[in-house]
Specification:
alpha/beta; 6-stranded mixed β-sheet; binds adenosine-5'-triphosphate
């Protein structure tokens, strides 16, 4: 029998020096789910996300990814199997769009040039980048186009899981809307499991098949956007829905 839970956070706590930033968090992500993570600033969203690819190992508790505990697994191969996309451009400035996208598959599959080219084409197409941009450098692209290249690069290893940390945080509203449309389409098209951190409640409610609401290191609610909207777990969630939480 296959376990449909691709990521499990079990009794997770995180302490930095003497300050506790995550307190006994438990939740599971099912295969193919699009989980948006929202909450007040500094509540631990990024910390939680980075635990999924072992960039952060919890002080206590276990994170189980595809049946493997991040404490015991080979983190390099785990990270290669998970896409990671963060806010702003983290592209290599001296590499063309094609080289940026090919960077990871290139590392993994050095000899097979045809396969690499096919992967570049496929992912450029999926994220909505014109092929004519292949030989451009990042400085020759708009912020939204750079973001698309970043997404294509994180998808280029065909990961089962994609972690996205405020990926559309640095682009204007119109581009943001377009990128949101793209990521919804990519999710539907590929069936990939996504964990997506955002500050924007509208974005969280629009994109997520489930929304994880956090406050000060705790999970306040974890449910479908509809259920969160209809039955906010408490006053914090209610206020967040009215965008009045500072
Ligand atoms: N390496 C570290 N050492 C000490 N404290 C840290 C470290 N990394 C994060 N923190 C603290 O842990 C808390 C949670 O940080 P985290 O980045 O996970 O929050 P966040 O919810 O993603 O924040 P934001 O929404 O502002 O990006 C914050 O108070 C932060 O200052």
């Amino acid at each position: 029998m296959t376990d449909s839970k691709i990521i499990r956070y079990e009794n997770i706590s995180m302490v930095y020096s003497d300050s506790q930033v995550i307190s006994d968090i438990n939740f599971e992500v099912k295969k193919g789910e699009f989980v948006t993570v929202i909450g007040s600033s500094g509540c631990g969203k990024t910390t939680l996300l980075k635990m999924a690819n072992g960039l952060i190992i919890p002080t206590s508790g276990n994170v189980i990814v595809n049946g493997k505990n991040t404490r015991q697994t080979d983190l390099t191969s785990l990270r290669r199997s998970i896409g990671y996309c963060v806010q702003g451009s983290v592209l290599f400035p001296h590499m063309t769009v094609a080289k940026n996208i090919a960077y990871v598959p290139n590392l993994l599959n050095k000899r097979d040039r045809k396969k690499i080219d096919a992967a570049v084409d496929k992912w450029m197409n999926i994220v909505g980048l014109e092929f004519s941009m292949k030989e451009r450098y990042p400085y020759q692209l708009s912020g939204g186009q750079q973001q698309r290249v970043g997404i294509a690069r994180s998808l280029a290893v065909s990961p089962e899981i994609l972690l996205m940390d405020e990926p559309f945080g640095s682009v204007d509203e119109i581009t943001r809307g377009m990128l949101q449309d793209e990521i919804i389409r990519i999710h539907e098209q590929t069936g990939i499991t996504i964990l997506f951190v955002t500050h924007d409640i509208n974005e969280a409610m629009r994109l997520g098949t489930k929304v994880l609401v956090m406050d000060r290191g705790c999970v306040k609610q974890y449910d479908s956007p509809d259920a969160v909207r209809k039955n906010p777990a408490d006053e914090f969630v209610e206020k967040l829905l009215f965008r009045s939480v500072k």
